[in-house]
Amino acid sequence: MVEGGSTRSRQSPDHGGAQSILRAASLLREVGLRRSVGLADVTAATGLSKPTVRRMLLALMNVGLIAQNPETKRYKLGVDAYLLGQLAETPYSFHDLSRDGIARLAELSGDTAYLSIRQGDSTICLHREEGKYPIRTHVLHVGDRQPISVGAASMAILASLPKAEADVIMEDNLDKIKDTYPDFNMEKIHTLVAEARIQGWALNPGLAFPGSWAIAAAVRDPDDRVLGAITIAAIEARLDTKRQSELAGLLMKEAQRLEKLMRRTREANRPAASLLAMK
Q: Do residues 61 and 129 share a domain?
């Protein structure tokens, strides 16, 4: 009896811990499959009680895997969940496939090169590579999240979207931008986005941080959706008109190379994906 009781007591915590992990993973999956979801929807989809769902959602929020809109109270994936997804070892990882190209841009330009991905109405910096020029601009770090409109990557993304969609995003982000960047010139942003539509790349002439300039080109996924952007950032003195054109050429060439690589990778892995779907 004592031995049997001891065995059960040793197993119970393991069983309970595994069950909690499975429940949390189920919640994370349900939230991730939708752009945003309410508490009642998650409760119905998982079959768990509302107090359990609320407690687990709070725990996932505390570690950044889930975020809640303070106004609508609806849930969506948090920044940390999105970054983990991009860092996962899969053949379709935007981050993994871009590493060599970002390093190449930093080496060729001598300045700082970035990879940013679009998540809803925001961009997230996934990767940064340093060039060899001794004076650099470090206003953006890996994991930084910005409302779309702020920065060259945002403007390149906006310029690649239908104008009506881009205008809605800029309008929706207006309050967020004013809170963080009270002196931000939105009229100038509209002008720069319009110019980017014509020339194929975007310029940020130090609008967010004076003296920190950047140019960017958008990147599309194999389904022609705007996925994110690649950027070269430098001090103002290194981005005169002539050099803007030179670096823009490098950026657009690298963006095209990355898009082709993603298409080839998807095609190469399509048979394997089909077999997995059949199982």
A: no
SS3 of the chain: helix, strand, coil, percent, to 5:
55, 20, 25
pLDDT at 158: 97
Backbone angles phi, psi at 229, to 5 degrees: -155, 155
Order of strands, sheet of 112-119, starting from the edge strand that comes earlier in the sequence: 145-147, 122-129, 112-119, 226-235, 212-220, 202-205
Residue 90's closest CA among 220, 268, 279, 253? 268
Listed as own residue / partner, the contacts of 258-261 with beta carbons closer than 8 Å and 24 or more positions apart are: 258/97, 258/98, 258/101, 258/219, 258/230, 259/219, 259/220, 259/221, 259/222, 261/97
Cβ atoms of 248 and 201 within 8 Å: the answer is yes
Give the angle subtended at the CA of 37 by the CAs of 34 and 38, to the nearest 5°: 165
**β-strands 75-77, 226-235: how paired?**
unpaired
Q: Do 197 and 167 have their domain in common?
A: yes
Q: What's the CATH number where 207 sits?
A: 3.30.450.40
Query: Residue 151: its pLDDT value, please?
Result: 92
Q: Which residue has the higher pLDDT, 1 or 270?
A: 270
Chain centroid to CA 133: how far?
27
Residue 73 has a pLDDT of: 87
- pTM of the predicted model over 0.85: no
pLDDT digits 0-9 by tens, 78-109? 877 766 765 554 445 788 899 999 999 999 99
Is the residue at 276 inside a domain? no
